[in-house]
Amino acid sequence: MIRSRLAAAAASALLGACAAAAPAPAGPPSGAYVLVLGTAQDAGLPQIACRKPCCEGARADATRRRLVASVLIVDPRSGSRWLIDATPDLAEQVERARGHGGERTGEGGRPALFEGIFLTHAHLGHVTGLLQLGPEAYASEPVPVHGSARMIAYLESNPPWSLLVERGHIRTLTLAVGEELELAEDLSITAFTVPHRDEFTDTYAYLVRGPRRALLCLPDIDKWGRWERSITELVAEVDVALVDGTFYADGEVAGRSMAEIPHPFIVETMALFAGRPAAERARVRFFHLNHSNPAADPAGEAAAAIEAAGMAVAAEGEIIEL
Question: Fewest CB atoms less than 10 Å from the CB: which of 51, 209, 237, 307?
Answer without folding.
Answer: 51
